[in-house]
Amino acid sequence: MLRIERLSAGYSAKPVLNDVSICVGAGQFVAIVGPNGAGKTTLFKTISGIVKPSGGAITFDGFDLLAVPPPQRAHLGIAHVPEGRQVFPSLTVMENLEMGAMTESGRRDWQANIERIFEWLPVLKERRNQFAGTMSGGQQQMLAIGRGLASSPKLLMLDEPSMGLAPSTADFIFERLIEIRRQSGLTMLLVEQRVAEALESADRGYVLEAGHVVLEGNNATLRADDRVRKAYLGM
Amino acid sequence: MEGFLQALAAGLLIGAVYGLMCVGLGLIFGVMRVINFAHGDFMMLGMYTAFYLFTAAGVQALFGNAVGPFVAILLAGPVLAVFGYFVHRTLISHVSGTRTASLEGEGHYAQLILTLGIALILQNGGLIVFGSVLASIRTPLSSSAWEIGPLFDMSIFLNKARSIDAIVSLAIMVLLSLLITRTRIGKSLRAAADNPTAATYMGIDVDRAHRTAFALGCGITAIAGGLLATNYPFHPFVGLEYVIVMYAGVVLGGMGSIIGAFWGGMTIGLVQQMSTLILPTQLQNAAIFAVFLLIIFFRPQGFFGRMVERT
Q1: Chain B residues closer than 8 Å to A90 by CB
Q2: Residues A167, A172, A177, A181, CA torsion sign
Q3: Across-strand partners of A158?
Q4: Which of A23, B105, B124, B166 is the most exposed place for a label (fewest CB within 10 A)?
């Protein structure tokens, strides 16, 4: 569904991604793990078009993604749940969800989507008329996820949904994501620093270090790999 | 007491028009974060557009002297909105929005120079095209009044033209707030203002949202300018006199708050008219800024401003 080939990108003179190739098949749950500054967020921003690549190709659902203007990419079915949540603070929870549903598919399925989102993340229903900026970090993260789901995406990209959250809240959000995936079969691409949890629930994984893919494989291979066990799983 | 009520009424009437004028600028600043120094000159163009629509384009012949001016003024709004749309497309968009999002200072320096340049061109271009003679949109309503009362032996006189100006301003303000709060376009404008990057992730074309805000802001201020022109004569440099008031209103209301800008403008209108009770008329503007400084001293974020920075 998403195929990234030999992608290089960066900010002005500073290259961040180097020859990165990643493949996400339809229905798969793929995790990208790696330390701070490895280029995980830049990779997502390049997929969404906020960062311009210096080389390589991205195809999504048969489209040459790099030829599609950034705001149009959401309409193709890519939902980006950004790092640091980035909800619209002066809009209510409901209005934030409506912004998620700006795409054609999101508008079409609005009623069904909103019911499912409220079922998965009931706190959003309770607080639907509250301004997003006044909510806690965990609630904002759930709103960011709900906002992504509201577009009826083909691919949900999650950039560190656990960032800045209390461990118990992060656990809860992880558990919700797995439940959402179990029920919807949605294709997901996850970037995480909580490597153990990410690898445990994903089908496939990539380890990104200093802008390079240093390791890739399915769930079992990665978790059995010595380097991963030493560097990330603390074993 | 009678004088006080009379000044209060006059302040409310002029305040509504000032409010509308400030909202035009507040919308542009709130959504785009662009400081538009040329906004007073867009208003000047709105005044002349209304003037020529009324006198030369047949509106006067069609609608007469009483209704005609207001028809011309309302038509000037869309004309200036289209003008603003193209100014944004050809000039402003090069130094704002997604093109400059990653630059240091987000292109603010270039924006200052560019809008200042546009202001100079409009002012001096206006001088060439319209001449330096004072113009005004005359209506017989400007020199007649409705009498309210007598109540408790007091009568208040409301200038007819100013009263209609205020009603038109309030009506447009209500329409605009409905647009901003209820419609899809309005919500996407607010989302683009809150967080342009996240708005792009949602599939909102931020540059197009900016263009919409700029066009709307120009149209709204043009209408406010036309309304002012029924009572105040104008000339090609009139924008300079108003742009400071506009900024004071936007800052008072709270930078970035669109509805706040209306109340900021309203406050300025009230202060200006009430100050005539105790100060000579020449000091009207001094009074505005004395009150402005006082309010900013006690409430630096303005009436509706948020202290939290946008993420």
Answers
A1: 190, 193-194, 306
A2: positive
A3: A81, A190
A4: B105
Of A33, A8, A4, A34, the closest CA to residue A19 belongs to A8
From residue A136, how far is each of A114, A139, A164, B31, B190 by CA, in Å?
A: 21, 5, 11, 25, 21
**B190 in A contact zone (CB under 8 Å):** yes
Q: Contact B190/A84, CB-based, under 8 Å?
A: no
- Long-range pairs of B83-90 with CB within 8 A, sequence gap ≥ 24: B83/B42, B83/B45, B83/B218, B84/B42, B84/B214, B84/B215, B84/B217, B84/B218, B84/B219, B85/B211, B85/B214, B85/B215, B87/B118, B87/B214, B87/B218, B88/B210, B88/B211, B88/B214, B88/B215, B89/B211
Report the distance separating Cα B151 and Cα B149, nearest Å: 5
Per-residue pLDDT of chain B (311 residues; tens, 9 = 90+): 788 888 999 999 999 999 999 999 999 999 998 889 999 999 999 999 999 999 888 887 888 888 889 999 999 999 999 999 999 999 999 888 877 766 666 778 889 999 999 999 999 999 999 999 999 988 888 888 888 777 777 788 888 889 999 999 999 999 999 999 999 999 999 999 999 999 999 999 999 999 999 999 999 999 999 999 998 999 999 999 899 889 999 999 888 788 899 999 999 999 999 998 888 888 888 888 898 898 888 888 888 876 444 43
Give CA–CA dist B144/B160, Å, rounded. 6
Which chain B residues touch A98 with a CB distance below 8 Å? 184, 187
* Paired tokens of B151: 């109540």
Joined tokens for residue B247: 């900024």
Q: Tally A–B CB contacts below 8 A.
A: 76
Residue-level length of chain A: 235
Contact B201 A79 (CB under 8 A): yes
* Type of residue found at A205: G
> How far is A68 from chain B, CA to nearest CA, in Å?
12
Q: What is the residue type of A138?
A: G
Cis check for the bond before B150: say yes or no (omega within 30 of 0): yes
Tokens representing B130 are 């319209």
* pTM of the complete model: 0.91
φ, ψ of residue B307 in degrees (nearest 5):
-75, -30
* Residue B237 tokens, joined: 């440099």
User: What values do phi and psi take at B274, rounded to 5?
Assistant: -70, -30
Angle at A224 between CA A221 and CA A229, to 5 degrees: 125
Return the SS3 of A25: coil
Q: Given strand A53-60, what is the order of strands in its sheet? A: A14-24, A2-11, A53-60, A63-64
Dig out the tokens for B21 from the structure. Answer: 């004028």
Q: What is the ipTM of this complex?
A: 0.94
- Whether A74 sits inside 8 A of B195 (CB atoms) is no
Which residue from B252, B262, B180 is spatially nearest to B12, judged by alpha carbons?
B262
Q: With CA atoms as reference, report the closest residue to B137 among B205, B217, B56.
A: B56
Burial class (CB in 10 A: 0-12, 13-18, 19+), A230: exposed
